[in-house]
Structure formats: C-alpha cells, structure tokens
Amino acid sequence: MRTENSNIILALNMDATGSEQQAQPPKAIMLVPPGNHIEGRDGRTWNNTTPAKIIQHFEANGLDIPVDIEHATHLKAPQGNPAPAVGWCNGLEARSDGSVWGNIEWNDAGRDMVLNRQYRYYSPVFVVASKSMEIAGIASIALTNKPNLEVSALNREETKGEENMNITQLLTALGLPATATFEDALNHIGKLKGDLTLALNTANNPPLDKFVPKADYDLALNRVTEAETKLAEHSKAVLETAINTEITAALKAGKITPATQDYHIEQCRQSGGLDRFKAFVAAAPAVAIDSALNTKTPDGTETAMNSELMKMAEMMGNTAEDIKKYGGI
Questions:
Q1: All residues at 6 or more sequence positions from 174 whose CB lies less than 8 Å from its CB, including other chains
Q2: b/e string for 207-217 if b means 16 or more Cβ within 10 A?
Q3: pLDDT tens column, 199-210
Q4: First CA to last CA across the chain, in angstroms?
Q5: Which residue among 38, 107, 228, 264 is least packed, with the fewest CB closer than 10 Å?
C-alpha cells in the first residue's frame, strides 16, 4: 500500500515463529530482524542498512505505533470500518546486531488475545522507500496467525521435553555423557574456565626452560651468524695458505710448470681439491728441470750455483771456485 508520498510504500508483512508461554504478553518484540537484507516468506525483500533512521522516523513522527488485528489500520480504517488498537508501541530500540525492537504497552483486549492464544504471531508494517526498498520506519504492528517475517511468536509454550533436550544438547557440546547432571555441567564449565585462565597465563608468561624472549633469541642468532662468518673466513685463509705451500713445493719439484700454476690453484680451492692435488703430485713425474736461469744476471754472469752444479763439484772433488774458474759457467 502506498502513502501519499509516491516514494514511500507501506509493506504488510505477515510471518514469524516461536514458543514460550508467559503470564503476560512480551513487553519487547523484534520488529526488524538483524541483517542488511530482509526477506519475507512471500518472496518480497527489504533493506535495513541504517536501523538508526527507523528510530529517527519514529521520534520525528511523535506518535505511538498502533498494534491492531490483521492490519486493520491499513485495510479496514480507510474503508470507514473500525480498526481498534489492542496495544501501542511507545518506543523503538536499534540493537548492535542491526535488529530493531519495539516496546509494547498492551491493553486488556490485546493481552487476552495473546494469552488465550487467539493470535500467536505479529507482523510489522514497514515504511519503505520505493526505489531502494530501504526500511525507513514502522507504520503499525498487527496481530496475525499468518506472519511473513521470521520473528518470535508472542505466546510460546515451554515443555519439559524441550528443557530436557536443551540439557542433552548442552552435555553433548561439553563432551559429557547423557547421564551427567546439570551440576556436572556447571562443574565442567568451571574447569574449562580454569583451564582457559591457566592457558592464557602460560601464553603471557611462558616458562624460560622452554621458551626464550625474542630479543635474546635474536641476539644469540646474530652471534652465531657472526661466529660462522669468522670461522668461514679463517678456514678460507688456512686453505689458501695450504694451497700456496703445496703449489710452491710442486713447482720446485718440477711436478707442475708456472704456466699451469693458476689452473692448479683454482682446482685446489674446490671441495676436496687440495687432497686430489697432493695425490697428483705424489704420483706425477717431474715435467720441468731447474735450468738455473734464476742464477743468471741480465748480462749473463752467474750470481750463484744451482744445486746440480754444487753436487757436480762435490763429486769431482772440486770447489765452487774451481767450477767457476774451469767449468766455464
């Protein structure tokens, strides 16, 4: 039903379920379910993105919202037929989940209808923006037996069977046997709360024999990294010294030539390379003989005898001076 404002639609909603017998009708009922998107049983949908605006609409209107029978305010009253109220909504509340609740003041007729179960459900009439379908306010509330929204019934009978079922579900959720008592459930809940407190305390104050502060861990890690770096540098220096020693010895022994020196050095730097080079030198024949060129000066004069000349002089019973004088070196 449209109001005089062509941008506003009054939506007649008729749906809800529930259960719980009461000595008095409920003083607070949910008029708009939680959620931004509301869908009725008949397929119609509305939007509820700003519940606060519904409250503002009620306060700006300045009038209590009537509670009638089967939407008589909008269906019978325009035809000149009686549409008596059976109660009044004198306040709205927007809750944290987005739902909107109404505070209801029932009259004797409304209270009797609800308590005698003549009407079990209720249906709010929304004031809705026609284009956005945004709920802007509540126009009225109707007692009905054919609701459209999923809201609680006004008169719900609670049975012993339902109570037992709820306890059974509670015991199952707690992991307790079906034979456990309500006191057992309370004790178990208390234990769970104690375990939770202990776990939180342990998390906030971990034992030092199993955990270390992050700052200490980072410091230790930095020290280990620094030590590993220094050890690697030392090992490299030791390896270079050993390589140079073996290469020099191999050159003197004539096992390698100066032309291949760089090649053998690089091979020795490989993993296991120095050991392989030692084995090679031990098995290889001499490929280069000392030519004594390093004993000659640029003008051709000898500056010192090499080992072979010294050995020759010794064998011949000559001195080094004899070799120099008669040997023509």
A1: 185, 188, 189, 192
A2: eeeeeeeeeee
A3: 887 777 766 666
A4: 132
A5: 228
Cα separation, 151 vs 138, in Å, equals 15
264-282 burial, b at 16+ Cβ within 10 Å, e below that, comes to: bbeebeeeebbeebeeebe
Check if the beta carbon of residue 273 is closer than 8 Å to that of residue 288: no
The CA distance from 22 to 40, in Å, is 27
Q: What is the dihedral of CA 246, 252, 253, 255, to 10 degrees?
A: 70
Of 31, 57, 5, 46, nearest to 132 by C-alpha is 46
pTM exceeds cut of 0.85? no
SS3 per residue for 193-245 = HHHHHHHHHHHHCCCCCCCCCHHHHHHHHHHHHHHHHHHHHHHHHHHHHHHHH
SS3 for 37? strand
- Run of H or E including 7: none
What CA–CA distance (Å, rounded) separates 259 from 257? 5
Residues 6+ apart with CB under 8 A from 203: none
Sign of CA dihedral 309, 310, 315, 320: positive
Domain spans of the chain, in order of start: 8-144, 160-204, 214-283, 293-326
Residue 241: what are its φ and ψ, rounded to 5°?
-65, -45
User: What are the pLDDT digits (tens) for 222-269?
Assistant: 888 888 888 888 888 999 999 999 999 999 998 888 988 898 899 999
Tokens 């120095």 map to which residue?
A: 274
Contacts of 153 (CB under 8 A, 6+ apart): 16, 17, 18, 19, 20, 120, 121
pLDDT (mean) for 16-25: 55
Given a contact cutoff of 8 angstroms between Cβ atoms, the answer to whether 119 and 143 are in contact is: yes
Please report, as a single letter, which amino acid is at residue 27: K
